[in-house]
Design goal:
heterodimer, A: alpha+beta, Phosphorylase Kinase, domain 1, Transferase(Phosphotransferase), domain 1, six-stranded antiparallel beta sheet, five-stranded antiparallel beta sheet, B: alpha/beta, 33% helix
Chain lengths: 498, 213
């Protein structure tokens, strides 16, 4: 172990680091504290007045604005936020918490970790590539399709929080967002590049795969050229959409077969920039993946006819179209992080466990057909499948559809956010609202809903109240009123037999 | 998927005998391990090794990282530098997929040339052939008393000098090669330059002099 260096942060805190370089990013050299609970990262180049001021705000005002609020502790897991500034041998540095243990590979790659990645950071690229998923990663690291949705919810929520504070990350990528799909967890790192619109300009344009088309298209203009597009909230929104697409479909939304130029570098700039086209564009088919040039290890994911983006369900499909068709070249039309969070949360309710125990994805989104099947392994659903359509009250006895459905499966729970439209499962959810209000069970050939704590549950079809600790059988066209309150929900039951 | 071809062109002449050639072998091994741990490189980079002594030989054809086996290197003979230039150009023209109207070609290949001596053949003629190919990055690494003027003619300003007596120097060079193959965030300022120039390489490690920078 190297020498331990002792110093005082600018706020007076004692800081120590071990003088062994553990990592080098684009701008910084990183060192661990002796107990590895935090890292010290020094900028290799001197930071000008502006940069310094930005960092001071980052560890000060901006951090306080997010963390020193009621419920601020929630964000500690979602961000690796710099906490202090240090100066050592003329170099400016930041002190940030070390990444949590689950963001390092426990098992790594297959065959007793033949790649030697055990203990390394779980960089998102490992999980966003079909080849890595199918050929290299240990199955215990991979997670399932549901846990990727949860991972994406965490990422969207964190980005939403940054944007709500008036900040932009400016370099979202699978390098700067650690993920742990085996637990559905994510954490945003490298926050020191934050952009404050109109105040602190960005240092980086982003990371290939995630640079927004307008930034790519104007790369060659001078930095102060009025037409040069630089990272900002809208470019974060593009990067976020790409991340979500890649984590759910293991392919890049813009990397298709279209050749824009014989020179690969020019081709790349056009394909990601001015001429970018969604590979699954509904009408422009010019950039469809060329399957003759795809490696076997990328299948079936690279084949958009086998795994079209529509497998992500109606809510996400709509946002992907906004992100990669309408908003690709019109940044103001891109979905917000809040849009993504809401759509992902609703998509969780559409998930159905695959009945094939060997299915690698384990979960899939109900495809709204009378003969549902898992789009990943092709296994059809067999049996009776109840679907609950959510309506909510908008005044005296009037219920309108919420464009929200809940798929029922054995041991599925019903939560307060299903009971009332005004409750949403995010970081502000109260402890009591985190607990289920009832559950579903297939019992004696019937689908039952067991009421655990709804005092006002009513079967509207026959006008009978359903007491706590009693059950109601789900049948076609049954209507259940979950709550008579404002925003209270009514369930309309559909049964699919296949 | 667009591949990133990487050619390592390594001097195996007699003067590399002993410590230097062992360090190079070790360096190649380290490079491969490091790249396999980088998910971007693992998916994209393909590696080939060309050795040159009395003659130049492709020791490993362009191979994906997961299947790459480091070659046994032994040092002997003269310095057929020109032949090596010729061979790397011929191999690249064979192995690298060119773009066409319907096929996305590979990235322009990266070439890392390491030598510790003076060419003993007609390298100027071979340089003409070498220049016919489209290269991404061409970096020269001059070990000890190597002729930097020759490397500069091949590689432009991208020539680094290192001292084999410094035990970490060759390792640091391969670490640098590994960092050049991985990608990261692109800085705002450097992005006017054509990607593929030296400016896209990570800063060299402190043990290495970059000649002409």
């Amino acid at each position: 172990m190297g020498r331990i260096v002792q110093l005082k942060a600018t706020d007076g805190t004692e800081i120590q680091f071990v003088d062994d370089l553990v990592g080098a990013g684009a701008m910084k050299d990183v060192y661990f504290s002796p107990d590895r609970s935090y890292v010290v990262a020094f900028y290799r180049t001197p930071q000008d007045f502006n940069a310094r001021q930005r960092l001071e705000n980052l560890v000060g005002t901006y951090r306080e604005r997010i963390f020193d609020q009621p419920g601020g502790g929630y964000w500690k897991d979602l961000f690796c936020w710099p906490e202090r500034l240090v100066e050592h041998e003329g170099r400016l540095g930041i002190v940030a918490p070390a990444y949590r243990g689950n963001f390092f590979f426990e098992f790594g790659s297959r065959q007793n970790d033949f790649l030697g990645i055990r203990g390394k950071e779980k960089e998102g690229k490992w999980f966003a590539s079909a080849t890595h998923q199918t050929k290299y990663l240990d199955p215990k690291e991979r997670g399932n399709w549901r846990s990727y949705i949860t991972t994406c919810i965490k990422i969207s929520r964190a980005v939403k929080r940054l944007h709500a504070a008036g900040l932009a990350h400016s370099d979202l990528s699978y390098k700067n967002v650690l993920v742990d799909p085996s637990r559905g967890d994510a954490c945003i790192i490298d926050i020191d590049g934050l952009v404050v619109p109109g105040k602190y300009p960005p240092d980086v344009v982003g990371t290939p795969d995630f640079i927004a088309p307008e930034v790519m298209a104007t790369l060659k203009l001078a930095k102060d050229d009025r037409n040069r597009a630089l990272p900002r909230r809208e470019t974060d929104q593009h990067a976020l959409s790409v991340l979500i697409y890649m984590y759910l479909l293991y392919r890049h939304p813009l990397r298709g077969g279209k050749v824009h130029d014989a020179d690969p570098q020019v081709d790349e700039e056009l394909a990601m920039g001015r001429n970018a086209v969604f590979i699954e564009h509904p009408t422009d088919v010019s950039n469809r993946p060329n399957l003759s040039q795809i490696r076997k290890s990328e299948l079936p994911w690279a084949d958009i006819s086998k795994v079209p983006f529509k497998v992500t369900g109606p809510y996400l499909t709509e946002l992907f179209l906004k992100a990669f068709v309408e908003g690709l070249h019109r940044p103001e039309l891109r979905p917000t992080a809040d849009n993504w969070e809401r759509a992902l949360v609703k998509t969780v309710d559409l998930l159905q466990p695959c009945t094939n125990s060997a299915c690698e994805q384990k979960w899939y989104v109900f495809d709204n057909t009378t003969a549902p099947r898992c789009p990943f392994c092709g296994t059809p659903f067999r049996g009776i499948l109840p679907i609950l359509n959510l309506y909510s009250s908008r005044g005296k006895g009037k219920f309108t559809p919420d464009n929200h459905r809940l798929m029922v499966y054995n041991d599925q729970y019903l939560y307060p956010w299903h009971v009332n439209r005004t409750i949403f499962p995010n970081e502000r959810l109260s402890d009591s609202d985190r607990k289920p209000v009832g559950y579903f069970k297939f019992h004696g050939g019937k689908w039952l809903f067991v009421n655990q704590r709804l005092s006002t549950l009513r079967n509207l079809t026959d006008g009978v109240d359903v007491a706590v600790n009693s059950a109601i059988e789900l049948k076609q066209d049954l209507q259940i009123l979950l709550s008579p309150d404002e925003g209270g929900r009514l369930l309309q039951v559909q049964m699919v037999q296949s | 998927m667009r591949r990133l071809p990487v050619y390592l062109v390594l001097d195996t002449s007699g003067s590399m005998t002993g410590e230097p050639i062992e360090q190079v072998k070790n360096g190649v091994q380290m490079l491969v391990s490091a790249l396999r741990q980088d998910p971007y490189a693992l998916e994209t980079a393909y590696l080939s090794v060309i050795g040159f002594g009395n003659s130049a030989t492709q020791l490993v054809p362009l191979t994906e990282l997961s299947a790459f086996q480091p070659p046994g290197l032994s040092a002997s003979g003269t310095t057929a530098f020109g032949e090596a230039l010729q061979l790397v150009a011929e191999r690249a023209s064979q192995e690298v997929t060119k773009s066409s109207a319907s096929v996305k070609g590979d990235w322009k290949p990266m070439v890392f040339i390491m030598t510790d001596g003076q060419p003993t053949d007609d390298w100027k003629k071979a340089l003409g052939r070498f220049r016919q190919e489209k290269w991404g990055i061409v970096v020269g690494c001059a070990v000890d008393s190597a002729d930097t003027a020759v490397l500069a003619e091949v590689c432009g300003e991208a020539v680094v000098r290192l001292n084999s007596a410094d035990s970490g120097a060759i390792a640091a060079f391969f670490k640098w090669v590994s960092a050049s193959i991985s990608t990261g965030s692109q800085k705002v300022e450097t992005s006017h330059n054509d990607v593929g120039g030296l400016s896209e390489l990570p800063p060299p490690p402190p043990e290495i002099d970059v000649v002409g920078l």
